UniProtKB/TrEMBL annotation:
Record organism: Clostridium thermobutyricum
Compositional bias per record (Low complexity), positions renumbered to this chain: 117-132
Keyword check for Mitochondrion: no
Molecular function in Gene Ontology: single-stranded DNA binding
PROSITE patterns: SSB
Comp. bias intervals (Acidic residues): 133-147
NCBIfam families: ssb
Domain of life: Bacteria
Name of the protein in its database record: Single-stranded DNA-binding protein
Subunit structure: Homotetramer.
Gene3D superfamilies: Nucleic acid-binding proteins (2.40.50.140)
GO BP term, pick one: DNA replication
Residue span of region Disordered: 100-147
GO cellular component: a single term: nucleoid
Amino acid sequence: MNKVILIGRLTRDPELRFAAGTGNAVARFSLAVTRQFKRDEADFINCVAFGKQAETIAQYLTKGSQIAVTGNIRTGSYDAQDGSKRYTTDVAVETFEFVGSKGGNNTESYNNGFGGNNSDNSQQSNDSFGSGFDDDMTPVDDGDMPF
C-alpha cells in the first residue's frame, strides 16, 4: 500500500501551471513537516495536485499556510540539460484539508476522486483538528506536554 498523510506548512506560494494539450491544472508546492520527537527539525516534502484541487490550493493557500494532505508517493526521473539523470520524489495529493484557519474550528476537506466517498469533491467538516481548542472551546494549554 502506498499511502501518505502529512500535516505541514507551505514553504512557498503554490506554483500553478496548465498542462499543454489538455489544459489540466497542476499545482506544485512544498510542505515543511516537523518531526514528531524533534520539533526543531523539519522535512521538506514536494507535493503535486491536479485539476480543481490544484486551482483551489493555488487560489487559497500561500507561504506559511497550514494544510493536511493525504496522497501517495510517486517517483520519476528525467535527463537534465547537462546530460545527467535526475530523480524526483513527490506526493501526489488525493485529498487535503485547510488546517488552523482564522475562522476557528472549521476545516475544509477536498477529495480528487481517488479516495473517500465524496461525490462532489468537497465537504464541510466540523472537526477541531489543529484548531487549538478542545470540545468546550477553551484554549488547550500544551505547556505540560513532554514534547
